[in-house]
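Re-running the complex after MR caught last week's input typo. The corrected sequence lines follow. Everything else is unchanged.
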Amino acid sequence: MADRTLLETFVALTEDLMACADIDDYLRRLAVRAAELLDVRAVAVLFADSGVLALAVSSDELGDRVGRHEVSMAEGPGVDAFRSGTPVACHTLFVAEPRWPRFTPVALDAGLASVHAMPCSVRDDVLGALTMYATRTGMPNAELGRAMANAVSLGVTVFRERELAVRADQLQHALTSRVVIEQAKGMLAERLDLTIPDAFELLRRHARSHNAKLHDVAREVLNGALDLTGAPATRPTPRILRTPPRPPAG
Amino acid sequence: MAARHELLGAEGSERLRRLHNTMAATHRRMEGRHRAAAKAHRAQAERLVHTHLAPTLLVTAAGALGADGAALTLLGAAWYEESAIASNSKAAAAQELEFTLGEGPAHDAAEHLRLVVANETTMPDRWAQYTTAVAKLGVRSVTAAPLCLGRTCVGVLTAFDPAGDTELVATRVADAVFDKVLAAGNALMILDDRTVVHQATGMIAARFHCPVGDALVVLRARAFAENEAIGVLARRVVDREVVFE
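Corrected-run output:
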């Protein structure tokens, strides 16, 4: 039965990885799944942004509150896991000399009894930490905690790559559009014996009158789908021959 | 070490955020604006970039590298969709030679997504024709740093005759240039030493009823055979001084 939950969680995680639109969405779902699977009160994911650790997502309001305290006070399990790059386990918060003098009262106040954290790393880079806040003393399954922390790192890698690919695509698209327009100008100039500026004007006029994008028209010219020499509707009318619109009859 | 990487990673995402913002802002501006106003705006942006940003950017890059010149090549999805700008005429000529010959440091940097460093000793083995051609301009050594977004190389910064130990400097300068390129977005692409080449390519494609890629091969071959700068030849094609038969 535990195996079944485990299986379901990881199937769901891989599906999230493919379906989620952005990393925040993915991590938010992951935090909720991690809290359930690890059987802890709340899970928070901390991330270093510009070198400063911040709360990225949490499974619920309590995780949000405690996670925020952790980063604002710069002490707690997640902070330590991030700094050391190693797992942090605090089986009980009920001790005379707590490891985190400022964090512990806040955690106890929130009803927590034990706290734990796993670093999230990609190769040698520690990106952040997955923190687990529990209302019972003891420790959640360390292997599972590690698996969830890995799922965080995996998600970050995947979404980062995806975002970069989109940006690269946009940049290349912008560049290609410009080049294609220049090539189409040359092609029209040669076909219709026009100057380059006149060829551009023809392209522009066609795009405008057909409510099309200039680079789409240019592309059609280049791949032969659009022949501006042919159809009368698209043939350029020399300015001097253009007749004024006739007034409507009657 | 980890902290440095974090910083770099954060810089990366900051850079992306800026690009995103720039693009979004551009879209919003364009949408809301009257056509005439948009045209005026575009013309002004073009002038600004022409007179200020791009030359400054590359002159600064060349200076930081202690180089005689620097060229920025932006790569489209297809090999014949390239645009380039340079810090001076020597760098422009050298980069154009690489474009004509189809071999050189920028090609290697883009292909392997790695910094390329070569000097008088190592250049001839790597690029025989290129080395001979640029030597006539006085170029003795080169570095080429790829500008990568993930696993896609979207451009290359090439430095000609950079000074001293350049690997780290070249990477840093390329990063700085890349930031500016992404921030400038589409505006930077208006600038292009290759514009007339693309126009001539279109003309040749029309003449031979062939794809533009093939047309550019024809143009490059002719430039190479006649030992003429491809930009000059392209200008003559566009001005109809040269007709391909």
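None of the earlier attempt is carried over here. DSSP finds eight helices and five strands in chain A. The longest strand of chain A covers residues 125-134.
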